Structures are given as structure tokens and as C-alpha cells.
Amino acid sequence: MIVPEPGQKIEIQSYKHNGQLHRVWDRTTVLKANRNVLIGGNDRAMVTESDGRTWITREPAICYFHAKYWFNVIGMIRTGGVYYYCNIGSPFVFDEEALKYIDYDLDIKVYPDMTFALLDEDEYELHKRQMNYPKVLDSILRNNVEILERWIRQRKGPFAPEFIDQWYERYLTYLT
Q1: From CA 159, how far away is CA 170, in angstroms rounded?
Q2: Which of 57, 97, 99, 173 has its CA 20 to 30 A from that of 48?
Q3: Percentage of the residues of the chain whose pLDDT score is greater than 70
Q4: Are strands 21-33 and 37-42 parallel, antiparallel or unpaired?
Q5: Does residue 102 contact residue 17 with C-beta atoms inside 8 Å?
Q6: Which helix (H) or strand (E) holds 146?
Q7: 62 - beta bridge partners?
Q8: Looking at the annotation, which residues are catalytic?
């Protein structure tokens, strides 16, 4: 796998299990990257949905992707604190074109007080039937929901108190 350089601007592409492009973020600045982890930052990124609609993100965000875990974490920096949006999805890959992963619908929203909620279980069940997710995949995804919830409770990785602040400070150095 190619590893992008810090400061490089990359595109992020999410797909569905059937290979259909789901959503594209036009630019994220790489802050750290190796074979296992990519941390990026963006602000006011243009997002293009699979139907062609576009929208712009409203706040700065720090993105955490892992090549071994089936989730990624977006820490959104808002005036009321950091809100996290966690996507249950395949481990990321990076090629010349973009960072890519498969989105498996289940999401966890984490509030500044670190309470959290599992979202979109109905959408997950629908797509699981429509796209015939194998039982082993369902097991992997459910297991990774548990791992992610444990990370949140333990304030591990991107949920550590200083994580977002430190990486956001690094992101700001690339804006000048």
C-alpha cells in the first residue's frame, strides 16, 4: 500500500458492500500516515453523495482511519465541544486515487460528555438482506461495534482527551 505524506491533500471515498460509490470528501490534509493508521484534518470540505448532491462540512474535523479495525472516527470540533461520528466500515486502503473504505451503515454518535448512541441499525439490517452480507461479516462488524464502544468508554485512541486538540493544532500548521 502507498503511504501518503504529511501535508498531502487526499480524497476520501466510501463505498457500499456491492461496490457502489456512496460518498466522496474532496480534500483532507494528511497529518500522519503509515501502513496501519491515517490521521487527517479538514474544514469546509465538499462532500458529494452518490446521487450527485453536494454539501459542505460545517466545522473543522479530525479523521482517524485504521487498517486493522472495521471502523473510522471523525472528531468534529464545535463550539459546544467535540462530537464524534464513528462509521462501522472496512479497514481503509489508500491508492494513488484516494483513501477508500466500505461503509456498513452502523454508526455511533458520541457527544462531548462521552455518552454515545448506536445509529442506523434498521438501515444496516435492510442492506444486510439486500446485499447478502455473509454471516462472518456480520460477526466481524458486531465485534467491531463492541471494540469501538470499549474505546469510547476507555477514552482510547481518538477518544483520548488530548487527541483532537493535538491533531487540530497540527492541522492548523498546514493552513498557513
Answers
A1: 17
A2: 173
A3: 99
A4: antiparallel
A5: yes
A6: helix 135-154
A7: 41, 75
A8: 23
Q: Give the residue from 165, 169, 153, 149 showing the smallest Cα distance to 82.
A: 165
What pLDDT score was predicted for residue 176?
Answer: 72
Q: Which domains does the chain have, with CATH numbers?
A: 9-164 (2.40.380.10)
**What mean pLDDT is predicted for residues 108-119?**
98
List, for residues 66-110, the tens digit of each pLDDT value.
999 999 999 999 999 999 999 999 999 999 899 999 999 999 999
Q: What pLDDT score was predicted for residue 31? A: 98
Cα distances from 110 to residues 85, 88, 151, 163, in angstroms, run 6, 14, 11, 15
d(CA 103, CA 87): 7
